[in-house]
Amino acid sequence: MMDGLSLALGLVVLIKGADLLVQGATNVARRFGISALMIGLTVVSFGTSMPELLVTMTSGLRDSSDLAIANVIGSNIANVLLVLGVAAIVRPLPIRNSTVVSEIPFSLTAAILLGFLANAHLFSEQMELSISRLDGAILLFFFLLFMLYVYKASETAERPVRDIASDGTLPRALGLIALGSLGLYFGGQWVVDGAVGLADTWQINDALVGLTIIAIGTSSPELVASAVAAYRGKTDIAIGNIVGSNIFNLLWVLGLTASFVELPFEVVSNTDIMVVIGSSALIILALVSSRNRTVNRAHGIVFVALYVAYLIYVVNRG
Asked: Residue ranges of the domains in the chain?
């Protein structure tokens, strides 16, 4: 009972902490005249990926590598099949050329890179698979390349006038950042404590909890943000939030965690990585099969149905 309460409370605090952090950081960015594109691809993406980062980092440092890896992989699957699917059902999502040409292929490449690094030991004398500290550094290097792309893209965007009175004073914005950071820290601790406790109580492995309950929970900020953005007709935000978050999860979250602690990797997780790769490829397939590069409602229904099927498979496997 207490483990379930800790998990639920931790997820609520994580989500609220990420929301406060994004609010405060966005106000600071606007105050200094940073472009909307730069805010969306950096501040918002960092903020919505913070729950995954805190849960993954905490799990890794506590020797719960199955939970750490499953959280990231499960969250990415949920982002595409569940979050994107729901957003497309709410409103068809036309995709920008830059997203089709650069960001979606980058997300797909990041998933393939993770699969290669996790299984690289198959070609060496070392028998056990893992995401090593060197692998973490490689993931962070590719994350740096993505951030350079974001910086170059922001240079071509229209630069706004400094908004001195953006949603309150600078001290208030800094206060939101501090409060959000505290929420993320304590929320991450409670989520991991609750998840590990539930896994022990139910006699299931950490990976099952990470791929289902925690993955959906940590993806809920993206789900709400993308669904609301789609409803309001801001489809660029909806699709950009999902693709950007997946890149951050694979390269930044896992890369940073693996840089601190080596993460043993189970062979069975290769199936889940293949689902990540396949779901990213499905976006491209949906765009090719539609007019005007749009993820429509029919695609959304298929995506959500596939996610339900995946959850059934994972539960039966677990």
From this structure: 2-317
